[in-house]
Amino acid sequence: MASSLALLSLTPAISRHSHLLFSRCPSPRHLRLAPPAAATPSPGGSPGPGVFLSPRALSQLDELAAFRYEHAFPHGLLTVRALSRGPEDDAVAEALVRLLASSFSETVRWAPAQRYAQLLTFVIRRYLHDRRGLAPHAAVLVGFYRPADSAGAAGDEGDEDGEGEGGEDEGEMACTAEVSFNAVGAPGAPPTPTPPLDFPYICNMTVKTALRRRGLGNQLLKACEELVNKMDAKRRVHLHCRIIDQVPFNMYRKAGYNIVQTDSILVWLSLQKRKYLMSKELPQASAASESSTKDFDDNILTY
Predict the structure, then answer these.
(1) Which of 34, 114, 184, 241 sits most deeply, having the most CB atoms within 10 A of its CB?
(2) Which part of the chain is the N-acetyltransferase domain (predicted)?
(3) Is 252 tagged catalytic?
């Protein structure tokens, strides 16, 4: 569970190296004008400019669009995909804002959780808007869950509770995580201990309260790792875990993550909880083994 100061990772993430978003190629015929990062008008009222992407970046965008990770549990099906940059995923993004705001406000003790969630909603909406525009340097993953007893009727009935904003066949929004693949996509203000910006980094990972303790968090972590391999990023992945969060820490250790660095005790002066910086060297995709999801708790929120 994250502390109230998890907002440090939700500051607007405009890269300090924004010029790197413009990839140079030898000939204009190899370039395609990508859609603007945001569909909303600029402050002046005109649409924002397009961004020229290299063939490799365009290939990575296609990889993100096609990415699907599925895992069938006895109790249901989890499907994880990347949140797109386009307006077709605006409803999903709005539901994701509510999920993140609810998760980050769970451990607040110094203010009414409802008021804090309202503040977080505004901040997270702006943050998510910026992060969606950083594809393919970063990706926001969204997991949808469909219980086993409703999987067969999914195509006919859809979601009556309004949670399936991603489409009638996707199910209820269940979890989310964010992955940055390089220095361009790295968060603008990463928490301490600071991870190396040019390596993949997993953050803002959470599972909906009602769906925890079912193994979804472990599979979401595997989805992040699989995407890192597919995006041809460096294979050493980093993440943070608070020292007090023993169950998520055990999950990360079982998944192969080791402690790289521990927060100084001085972070208490800023009212933060001490954290571990953990890392894992991913195996080649073909060599990745399927591990059991037993005894894994999904009460996870890294930042």
Answers:
(1) 241
(2) 122-283
(3) yes
